[in-house]
Amino acid sequence: MRDFLSGQSAASPGWDSWRSRVTRTTSRRVQRWSFLCGCQKGLYEKKRRVLSVELPKVYREGWRTVFNADPNVVDLHKMGPYYYGLGSQMLHFDSPENPEIAQTLLQTFIGRFRRNMDSSQNAYNEDTSALVERLDCLEKALFSSGQSGLNSFQSWEKGRASQLTASSLVLNYRKRKINDLQP
Amino acid sequence: MFCEKAMELIRELQRSNEGQLPAFNEDGLRQVLQEMESLYEQNQTDVNEAKSDGRSELIPSIKLRHCCLLRNQRCLSAYLYDRLLRIRALRWEYGSVLPANVRFHMCAEEVQWFSHYKKSLASFMRSLGGGEGLDITQDMKPPKSLYIQVRCLKDHGELEIDDGTVILLKKNSQHFLPRWKCEQLIRQGVLEHVMS
């Protein structure tokens, strides 16, 4: 589900602010609308000039300078939880700034990756909300797979790898059942 | 705006905990299908008008509706497919018999799909090992010993072992049992594996 969402730059609670703006040109007037990215792709045609796409501000010159200076200071969750996914989709619209946008996306990821990897591999059995709150969704997915790798390794070190455990799904269902019963 | 209802369905799945199956949102599905039907009808009228009167300015709106139709279709497929993946995982975690509260959240077609999946898995398992059969849902972790020490977490009644002995599984009782008999019960949370 996560892959589907980031691939199509679709839903999230903050999604409404992330529909990129579209300008529809007609011979009579120009209208500005807000569309889902997938619908814009279907309508966008360079030759016909039906739509022109306005980049969200986080991909523009101003913010690109910030990212190039130090990508670690930016709160990517606030700036759009699907920064990388939406950015890759925006490249479809033949903007003249495409090479710079692509470069910034890549360098931002590279710049942030090391810190995220280190924190996911060293935060064992503690509250990680402070580490995770400023991450984009792709980074969050990587962080959680790092954490699950860390937990498996630690349980192997303690000799617990061969211990049979109840399935987490079963335990979650049981918790929900108790919550449903409580008034 | 178009495609909002379809996004609601996807958000609902994303909101639920990892692997949990929320109730089947039949209303939501029906609303999305209605929206698709009305988009399609509007498009049919516009296409006929564009062809007969030569009104080419209708074409962008036809294209927009078509994109929304494709989008809705994709969202619905993703919703249904993700639910099937979760149901499939339930076979491996819970076993062939699902608890009532889980079955309650499945629609009739999903229940049917689950029983087909169970049958396919069972016939595949029977065909392994040169016709002898092999239970591949066992030994998910490499076993270290044939017999294991277990403690009962809740009353589960009687359990018969292969040699005919009957064990009474009472809460907090400890037993030394064959691994293959206990694995399913440990996964379901009835027994607890005690490491010495």
UniProtKB/TrEMBL annotation, chain A:
Major localisation: nucleus
Record-annotated GINS subunit domain positions: 65-157
SUPFAM superfamilies (UniProt xref): GINS helical bundle-like
Record keywords, A-Z: DNA replication, Nucleus
InterPro entries given in the database record: GINS_A, GINS_bundle-like_dom_sf, GINS_Psf3, GINS_Psf3_sf
GO CC annotation, single: GINS complex
Pfam families: Sld5
Localization per Swiss-Prot or TrEMBL: Nucleus
CDD domains on file: GINS_A_psf3 (cd11713)
Keyword Glycoprotein included in the entry's annotation: no
Record-level GO BP terms: mitotic DNA replication initiation
Presence of keyword Nucleus: yes
Summary of the function given for this chain in its UniProt record: The GINS complex plays an essential role in the initiation of DNA replication.
Record text on subunit structure and interactions: Component of the GINS complex.
Similarity section: Belongs to the GINS3/PSF3 family.
Protein's name according to its UniProt entry: DNA replication complex GINS protein PSF3
TrEMBL record, chain B:
InterPro entries associated with the record: GINS_A, GINS_bundle-like_dom_sf, GINS_Psf1, PSF1_C
GO biological process, one term: DNA strand elongation involved in mitotic DNA replication
All residue ranges annotated as the DNA replication complex GINS protein PSF1 C-terminal domain in the record: 144-195
Assigned GO CC terms: GINS complex
Subcellular location field: Chromosome; Nucleus
CDD domains attached to this UniProt entry: GINS_A_psf1, GINS_B_Psf1
Primary location: nucleus
Keyword hit for Nucleus: yes
Transmembrane segments: none
Domain GINS subunit: 52-128
Subunit structure: Component of the GINS complex.
Protein name, per record: DNA replication complex GINS protein PSF1
Species per Swiss-Prot/TrEMBL record: Champsocephalus gunnari (Mackerel icefish)
Lineage: Eukaryota, Metazoa, Chordata, Craniata, Vertebrata
